[in-house]
Specification:
Layout: H1 24-28, H2 38-61, H3 64-82, H4 87-100, H5 109-134, H6 142-151, H7 155-172, H8 175-189, H9 197-213, H10 219-234, H11 238-252, H12 260-275, H13 279-292, E1 303-305, H14 313-318, E2 322-330, E3 336-345, H15 348-358, E4 362-363, E5 366-368, E6 371-373, E7 375-383
Antiparallel strand pairs: 1-4, 2-3, 2-7, 5-6
Helix pairs in contact: 2-3, 3-4, 4-5, 5-6, 6-7, 6-8, 7-8, 8-9, 9-10, 10-11, 11-12, 12-13
């Protein structure tokens, strides 16, 4: 019998590009037992084998549409071959659920939601099989449990499932398993109302484990480092965030391409150093961003660090609103120089405040032929009062 390998990964999943039409009744309806003659069984086995081989090849080739197509086929045919309660069928279901959950920009909101419902059903079916086979608190059940949590529309239930997965991982006494599960739980809860200090600690604990177990250039360790840095920054602990962002940059700078975390670390260090009044340290990160990001003549530059202009007290008292359009030069170090008013509405107070504030902004400089150069830019600052 062919062994079925569950290819779902908690860290990375395969991306998709095409919605494969599969009638819901075919995938999820309760099916009565069917008696097959030997010829039918042989044909079904051969057909399944072909589909599963095609699925594995699509995974290797990173052919997104085929991954989804053959995952669906292999799951449907595998149920006939192995039966609904087989671990092999459960693994095929996990592969199919993973495929369904990949981002696909061609889908509208309703289609994406439908996929998520299908994936959740598959994860629940697999979880029931795993728990029956290995036990409800088994390490083996973590994968389908996390999948069920990640696709659960009830965030309260999802939170409970994430916590259950973490507790199982803690009892496993396997640090790398625990770190992976904790990062999955953190990612699943960080933007929900159930985010709390315990959830925050999931990420920080995972980071500590990866520091002990993985080399400095491990992608898993660097991703956890970046997350830990963001947490420290959000907590206002710049002295802890800065070395973590610097660590991310040091490792990714060795690559021959720009990684989003490297760019993000540079941008956040500009903000942190400027808030600490260390423009010299901020400058090298402004320059680094300029060298990493292609600069188009038609694009508008975006500030890496900016302060809101102070609202003139006299204008606020009068209930006066306005705006100021300013032209300026971003020099080769990312500083704003020579700010000048092009047009304005509301009076001189708005103009003075705008010019004063812009001098504190920082930009990524323009690069030409590998060298930072000065470039012109413009911005409009709006002064509005809250109503009511």
């Amino acid at each position: 019998m062919m062994a079925i390998v569950h290819s779902h990964s908690k860290a990375k999943l395969f991306s998709l590009a095409l919605l494969i039409s599969s009638p819901s009744s075919m995938l999820f309806a309760d099916e009565s037992s069917v008696t097959l003659d030997s010829k039918t069984v042989s044909e079904a086995t051969e057909s399944f084998s072909d589909s599963y081989k095609a699925y594995k090849q699509a995974v290797l080739d990173r052919k997104d549409a085929d991954v989804l197509k053959f995952a669906a086929q292999a799951y449907t045919l595998g149920k006939q071959k192995f039966g609904d309660s087989s671990i092999d069928t459960a693994n095929l279901g996990l592969n199919y659920a993973s495929a369904l959950m990949q981002k696909d920009k061609t889908l509208n909101k309703a289609q994406s939601a439908e996929r998520k419902v299908q994936a959740h059903q598959l994860y629940n079916i697999a979880l029931a099989v795993y728990e029956l086979e290995y036990g409800e608190e088994s390490v083996e059940s973590i994968d389908p449990l996390l999948g069920a949590a990640q696709t659960n529309p009830d965030i309260k239930q999802a939170t409970s499932q994430f916590k259950q997965a973490v507790e199982i991982a803690e009892d496993s006494e396997q640090p790398m398993v625990l770190a992976s599960v904790q990062m999955s739980a953190f990612d699943g809860l960080k933007h929900t109302r159930y985010y709390d200090r315990k959830t925050r600690n999931y990420a920080l604990n995972a980071f500590d484990i990866y520091k002990q177990k993985l080399p400095e250039d491990s992608i898993l360790r660097l991703e956890a480092t970046y997350t830990a840095a963001l947490i420290r920054m959000a907590e206002g602990k710049s002295s802890k965030a800065i070395p973590l962002f610097e660590m991310v940059i040091e490792q990714f700078s060795k690559l021959d391409y720009s990684h989003p975390y490297e760019l993000g670390s540079h941008a956040r260090l500009v903000e942190l150093y400027e808030e600490d009044g260390d423009s010299e340290s901020s400058t090298k990160h402004c320059i680094a961003i300029g060298s990493m990001s292609p600069w188009l003549e038609t694009q508008e530059q975006s500030p890496l660090y900016r302060l809101a202009p102070e609202y003139p007290i006299s204008s606020a008292r009068r209930g006066q609103e306005g705006w100021v359009q300013v032209a300026f030069t971003v020099d080769e170090y990312g500083f704003v120089t020579d700010p000048r008013v092009l047009d304005s509405k509301g009076g001189a107070g708005f103009e003075t405040s705008s010019l004063k504030t812009l001098k504190k902004w920082r930009y990524a400089p323009k690069f030409v032929d590998g060298k930072a150069v000065a470039a012109e830019s413009q911005v409009q600052l709006d002064f509005t009062l809250e109503k009511g």
